[in-house]
User: Fold Probable nicotinate-nucleotide pyrophosphorylase [carboxylating] from Caldovatus sediminis.
Amino acid sequence: MTIPSLPMVMLEPLVRAALLEDLGRAGDLTTDAIVPAKAQARVALTARQPGVVAGLDLALLAFRLVEPRIEAAVERPDGTRLAPGDVIATLSGPARGLLTAERTALNFLCHLSGVASATASVVEAVRGTRASICCTRKTMPGLRAVQKYAVRVGGGSNHRFGLDDAVLIKDNHVAIAGGVRPAVERARARVGHMVKIELEVDTLAQLEEALALGVDAVLLDNMAPPALREAVAMVGGRAITEASGRITPQTAPEVAASGVDLISIGWLTHSATVLDIGLDHRG
Assistant:
């Protein structure tokens, strides 16, 4: 399935800010001193390891914002599976612009491809089960939209985009509200009919209370697989079930086998290892 690209109006502020941070007060001292102003070059964005491409639009935008005369030919768009040595795109144009934008372009491309690749590894681990892999709000400041896009590119789905698109009642909400019932009842009285309510539960007793209150989803936090199986049986389809808590590609299959609908993983966005992609000079 092809994932629609994010609108350029969302990407440009991120790329501009990153370029301005790198260019600082005097521009690219190294390139401007060494490379003749009229020099032309051809380069290739090349994979150094297997993975999934994501963030190519941001990378190409970085080059074009620095030097509009740079031309790009995309060979492997976002969502493509990569092998070492695969060329993602070739670029040609003024050499100064290619070198000045290189690091900013690769920062976006390597990071977001890392997010997509990590997501794909967990999606593959639970293939054949009903569980979907989703991200969380544990994103890097300012990068939430593009990190969540990269999760979709990797075959995952998105949890909340922010505090304003769903209710997720966690343990501290319950503690301050004085219990599960008042927390749920206050939320239901406040939000509109289009907003779903999810409740985090740590025990089967809490789950029973949540189901009696008719919440839309339950977050089964840090439950072992045997408890997850019992929880899914208790829910019996009355709510969406979501498992979370330090889940890895190695532990995900057993979690998914419990029958949960969703597995949410924070490290997909906050700690995914970058995918090694380089910029190779081609002449």
